[in-house]
Specification:
CATH class of the largest domain: Alpha Beta
Distance between the termini: 65 Å
CATH topology of the largest domain: Rossmann fold
Structural class: alpha/beta
CATH superfamily of the largest domain: HUPs
CATH architecture of the largest domain: 3-Layer(aba) Sandwich
Length: 398
């Protein structure tokens, strides 16, 4: 690729880069000296599983790998014990070393669904943060002022509202910055909510006599609701280890406009190709193609084809799936006039609770043997009940 082509490839989907002219210079220098750039992204292992929101930055890391640069997948096992305060209005609870280590192993197993294992440095920031002596910390913290730290929007808001800010939270941006010093980073990437932390890294590197890293931020991916950021706690996520049929079905739930944002941030399609898809393909066909691309990335093309067929059969042709789980009628659901459906749905996992089951039945989201049900009691039930609640199915034998 020419330099301009490399920049176009790397800048696709980025929210901001500080500074683009610096990136151009570093790419030119890297080519002249035959020295790959060192590109760092830090992940605090605060949860065991990654979702598509995390893969936005993983894909950009892969783009740097494609151009021959060194990507550092940094596991923040020490900074996770502080907890990144970015965007939070409360202090994060501390994690145990055991939980951090377990989550870190899971991360390592998942990221190579996108990254090239042979071209990735996996590092732990405990390697350099844990050995620091007290005077080392004093020298590090002396390089930044409390006033500068409190310029951060989330800290400033908490201070204004009288919400407590613990001293250890103020350490986080400096610990992350010291990671860049230890790794001699040329570029650090993060979400848009990480901009302050990344900029601190530039300043601390200067203080340590290093060229300041280039800061690259990427958008925060919206979840299935199209409003909030993708989050497991909000239930609007697509996990990268979920079964192919589940991933496919979830992609098909997103809105048409959000679909093209997913094309931009979750695929390697160029902006010209995405524009052509928008102009030439029917939205349903474009979404089916997107779902196949995403499932192929994390499973295989064969699994994506099978997931598409399952989706077409069950959702579009309203056919009954061939592999519905079969369970016996649980205890405690029979009543004098038949079966209590709300209790049945809760007991077999088609509703989170009896009240959730009542809501689904009243909303017309429950079918039994192909017929919608509205009553909470099922009189004279058949010997076998094929139950659909939303997109989930169960077969119950009496």
């Amino acid at each position: 690729m020419t330099l301009d082509q490399q920049l176009s490839y790397l800048l696709k989907g980025m929210a901001e880069i500080i500074r683009e002219e610096d990136l151009r210079e570093r790419l030119t220098e890297a080519a002249r000296k035959g020295r790959p750039l060192r590109v760092k992204v830090g992940f605090d292992p605060t949860a065991p599983d990654l979702h598509l929101g995390h893969t936005v930055i993983l894909r950009k890391m892969k783009h740097f790998q494609d151009l021959g640069h060194t990507v550092i997948f940094l596991i923040g096992d020490m900074t996770a014990m502080i907890g990144d305060p970015s965007g939070r209005n409360v202090t994060r609870p501390p994690m145990t070393r055991e939980a951090i280590a377990q989550n870190a192993e899971t991360y390592k197993a998942q990221v190579f669904k996108i990254l090239d294992r042979e071209k990735t440095e996996v590092r732990f920031n405990s390697d350099w943060l844990e050995p620091l002596q007290y005077m080392d910390l004093v020298r590090l913290f002396s390089k930044y002022t409390v006033a500068r730290i409190l310029e951060r929007d989330d800290f400033a808001q908490r201070y204004k509202e009288g919400v407590p800010i613990s001293m250890h939270e103020l350490m986080y941006p400096l610990a992350q910055a010291y990671d860049s010093v230890a790794l001699e980073c040329d570029i650090e990437m993060g979400g848009t909510d990480q901009k302050f932390n990344l900029l601190v890294g530039r300043e601390i590197q200067r203080d340590f006599g290093q060229p300041p890293q280039i800061v690259a931020t990427l958008p925060i991916l919206e979840g299935l609701d199209g409003v909030n950021k993708m989050s497991k706690s909000l239930g609007n996520y697509i996990g990268i280890t979920e079964p192919p049929e589940v991933m496919f079905r979830k992609v098909m739930q997103i809105g048409d406009e959000l679909m093209f944002r997913y094309y931009e941030l979750l695929t390697d399609k160029s902006m010209a190709e995405i524009a052509a898809i928008r102009a030439e393909m029917h939205p349903m066909e474009a979404k089916l193609a997107l779902a196949r691309l995403i499932v192929t990335d994390f499973h295989s093309a064969a699994e994506a084809a099978r997931a598409a067929e399952v989706f077409n059969a069950v959702v579009r042709r309203k056919e009954v799936p061939a592999d519905i789980p079969t369970v016996p009628l649980p205890e405690g659901v029979r009543v004098a006039n038949g079966i209590r459906l709300d209790k049945l749905l809760a007991k077999i996992g088609l509703a989170e609770s009896v009240s959730d089951a009542v809501r689904k039945i009243k909303a017309g989201a429950v079918e039994i043997n192909g017929e919608k049900v509205k009553d909470l009691a099922l009189a004279s039930p058949a010997a076998e009940l094929v139950i659909q609640a939303g997109k989930s199915w169960k077969k119950v034998t009496l």
